[in-house]
Amino acid sequence: MEEPIKTDRPFKERVIEGFDRSRLRQEALKAKRKRFHKLRQRYGTMVLGASLAVGGLVPITASRMVDTEGGTERSLVGAFARDIARGVAGGIDEAIPVGRAVEQRLISEAEMELMTEKVREDYFKTEIPFGSIIYKEAKHNNIDPELVAAVVQTESHFKPTARSGVGATGLMQLMPRTGKWMGATKLTNPADNVKAGTKYLKYLNERFDGDQVKVLAAYNAGEGNVRRYGGVPPFKETRNYVKKVALAEKEYKAKVSGKIAEVLENGNAAVVAGSVNAGR
Question: Which of 76, 122, 143, 196 could potentially form a cystine with 184 if both were Cys, beta carbons 3.0 to 4.6 Å apart?
Fold first, then answer.
């Protein structure tokens, strides 16, 4: 027979329907674990999204978690920040509130987006030669900065005065005719060259409906050859070129993702986002 409810003890010590406080805590913890398990299933597949250019950044819609106290959806930044930045939800486990996760700094999705783009921009300005120009022109032409940097690296290794045997010149190795067509006045000038080269990438991107493999093949072998062969021409140089640029782009995205992960892990996301908002 169950012991009757005792009401003569202080409220915090009362027994409620046969459950003492310890058992109540256990039941509450079980419920919370089930809830996070469902959240992990819901957001289990995280891809570095299109909102922050081709792969490498935190997807805004996928990074939403639930603030269990406030009842609002917000971006959760804690001990599993590195996993989020890599696009993996596996870092969420039953023991979320341990270590640095106790911070659990919550920032809005808008702040998260501003923060990731700010970190990305700073990376280009400080880590990539002519990165400020590359980032500016890439964003202006709706091309991923990582792709433009990869093209520059593959074409000239960031040497403004580079010139090929057939006359391609500058950072993005533009032929004089192409450079003039795209508005460049001096191909050895980094700003002119990157502006024209990025504009040309945009043109090719529109011509090939966003098929990046064909875009890169056309940049190297010409638009006519890509159309003639219905894809990457059977030229060894062009095929190697497409692979080199794709690999370099992937590496740049990984580095940007690493920088974002550092900011998240160190709990500086809100600070960075706040600085961006303050400058607007």
Answer: 196
